[in-house]
Amino acid sequence: MTGEKIAILGCGNIGISIIEGLLRQKEIRSEDIIATKRNINSSGILSNSGVLLTTDNTLAVQESDLIIIAVKSYNFSGLLSEIRNFIDPGKHLIISVTTGIPIARIKEETKHDVPVFRAMPNISASVNSSVTCIGHNAENADRVARVIKLFEHLGATMIIDEGLMESATILGSCGVAFVLRFIRAMIQGGIQIGFDAATASAIVNHTVKGAAQLLIEGNQHPEKEIDRVTTPKGCTIVGLNEMEHNGFSSSLIKGIVASFEKIER
Questions:
Q1: How far is Cα 155 from Cα 153, in angstroms, rounded to an integer?
Q2: Under CATH, what is the fold of the domain 6-160?
Q3: Could you give the percent of the chain with pLDDT greater than 70?
Q4: How many CB atoms lie within 10 A of CB 131?
Q5: Which residues contact 229 (CB under 8 A, 6 or more apart)?
Q6: In this structure, are residues 88 and 27 in contact, taking their beta carbons and an 8 Å threshold?
Q7: Other beta carbons within 10 Å of 203
Q8: Confidence at residue 249, expressed as pLDDT on a 0 to 100 scale
Q9: What tens digit of pLDDT does each residue of 113-153 get?
Q10: Is residue 158 a contact partner of residue 131, using CB atoms and an 8 Å limit?
Q11: What is the domain class of 168-264 according to CATH?
């Protein structure tokens, strides 16, 4: 990865998160990242990062090896039209983190036989704790390994069937907001039972982190860990049952399905 030039076309929330995560890694130099933004005068944290900022997408493509497209879906075709003549199939890999644009369409609109990947990281990439789902049509194992290695700098990675990329968007990307809403509710509950906001936040944040780590390291079903915490006639089971009586699990599942149905339209 060292020495490879990475172009990130689009500095919205996910583009910025990717850049922030890459900059936390010693293996990747800031001067190997070139990012495009329509208004570089409002580039915020990137201003003094060492990343080359430009408004010129074609320059970014020419100066790069890996091209990460991070624009909104309604800007996607216009961007490909702009950079199409500067793509070198022998040099470039294209990685799209844009929702809802299939590989077949990307290849059709680039008009090149260039390796194309779809990746879905989330904003936790900024702290190297994303999960990135990757779909591709590449037959070259080395190219696949390059893309996996890139996103491993940002957290966990997994290869999935491209047909599940929209599902990955809901569970892994929108899912951050779902979890944060749960955390916010936990904090509000903590305040109601006596903690100040800062203390409640610290307790909840570390509790959620620990719960996730239990599942990651133990590779257990959540219910097994729940059983370890709940005791007969105890306070945990009373709280869990009250939440379920009020539709906790059902409302979360309905929210996930509703988000998926929205993205599928």
A1: 6
A2: Rossmann fold (3.40.50)
A3: 96
A4: 21
A5: 236
A6: no
A7: 14
A8: 96
A9: 888 999 999 999 999 999 999 998 777 888 899 999 999 99
A10: yes
A11: mainly alpha
Q: What mean pLDDT do residues 233-255 have?
A: 96
**Side chain identity, residue 95:** I
| Residues 177 and 191: beta-carbon distance below 8 Å | no
DSSP string spanning 175-196? HHHHHHHHHHHHHHHHHHTT--
Domain ranges of the chain: 6-160, 168-264
The residue whose two tokens read 């793509």 is 87
Burial class (CB in 10 A: 0-12, 13-18, 19+), 16: buried
Kindly report the pTM of this predicted structure: 0.90
User: What percentage of the chain's residues is helix, strand, coil (to nearest 5)?
Assistant: 60, 15, 30
- Does 6-160 match 168-264 in CATH topology? no
Q: Residue 15: pLDDT band by 50, 70, 90 thresholds?
A: very high
Spell out the alpha helix ranges (H) of 87-174: 103-110, 141-152, 165-168
Average pLDDT over residues 230-259: 96
Per the structure block, which two tokens stand in for 17? 């998160």
Mean predicted lDDT score pLDDT of the chain: 92
> Does 264 score more than 80 pLDDT?
no
Contact 209, 139 (CB under 8 A): no
CB 7 within 8 A of CB 68: yes
The two structure tokens encoding residue 223: 């219910």
Q: For residues 44 and 150, is the Cβ–Cβ distance under 8 A?
A: no
Contact 125, 164 (CB under 8 A): no
pLDDT digits (tens, 9 = 90+) for 165-177: 999 999 999 999 9
Across the strands, what pairs with 68?
8, 95
